[in-house]
Amino acid sequence: MKICLIYDFLTEYGGIERLIVNHAKILRESGFDVEILTCHINKEVIEKMNLSREKIINISLIKTPFESISLATSYLGLNKLDKLKADAFLSYSFPSSFMIRNKKAIKINYVNHFPHFLYFKGKNKKEWATSTYGIKRKISIILSWLFGPWLKNMDIKLIKNSILNFVNSNFTKKGLEKLYKTNMVLNYPVLDPVFKPSKNKLNEKFIFTSGRIIASKKFEWVIEACSLMKNKMPLYISGQGDKTYQKNLLDLARKLKVDLKFLGRLDTGELIKYYTSAQVSAFPIPKFEFGLVPVESIACGTPVIVWGDNGGQCEIIINGVNGYHAKPYDRKDFAHKMDKIIDSKFKAKNKRKIILSSRKFSYKKLKENFIAEINKLF
Fold first, then answer.
1. Which of 1, 48, 213, 352 is the most exposed, having the fewest neighbouring CB atoms within 10 Å of its CB?
2. What is the average per-residue pLDDT within 323-351?
3. What pTM, to 2 d.p., does this model score?
4. CATH architecture, range 2-190+362-375
């Protein structure tokens, strides 16, 4: 059986891209013929994604270095999909589902969240539009203004026409089942097996967080919380992103006298070393659908502070077991929880429990669940 995984672009290496890598590996290991389809490729990102064993096809008929042009023309039908045959297509976005809507094959979705450009409003919409590279999100906002009602109807139709819809957390499942009025199947994003405590630890004390450095990640909230801590120590942030936002964070840190250091994009080995060495990890995103950062941190034995707002991150962090839930969105309480971790030597006392709690997201367990659902379709 052949399954094509389709996503708009492979130009960043974030949560969805890492999910695609693991799904491709799981399907291939389970005997499926796998192809990854996309409209635009960044070769450096492909190398970082370790996709050398997977077949990747750029489906755009327009050869251009401009991502927005590749995406727009592919969405409008100037793509190679009519020549590609598969038993099933697994889509990771609304635009990808739109492109394969007329394919005579089984359709599966992995829905991380609803299309933000269609359902976000006001400040959230503006923040989302500026939180990635290029102008693709700004263009999608314009489309939502022009064709919003039609696009929402199409989105609902595509979800309901899919024979299987995966979601990344119970939080997401609850919200999307209400929105789409159809059943969703929970399958958490897979924890890469390489994430475990590193033998090479840094001989220093620090707070750690990671992710794309964009406004929606709310890194300023961590800086504000660090300024209120009793235990003063540096805050290290790994990742890349918006340079203007990064400068604003540095300015805020100087103002609040927080020792902030940007580490840039770390390779996996370095990332694991920082997770393992940190006193505590901070995950400041509010009501997030899921979070690989807290999963990776606990797999390396380091507790995490999250907002206790019932978001997907609260399914990962168990209050008092592998971290704490701070009062939403009380920076003082976030600081208190980080101090509590440090003062009580929580990490050393609970290291085994912290690591064991990550097994809920293990590759083996989630592979079994994922393949069991896929096999029901054939």
1. 352
2. 98
3. 0.91
4. 3-Layer(aba) Sandwich (3.40)
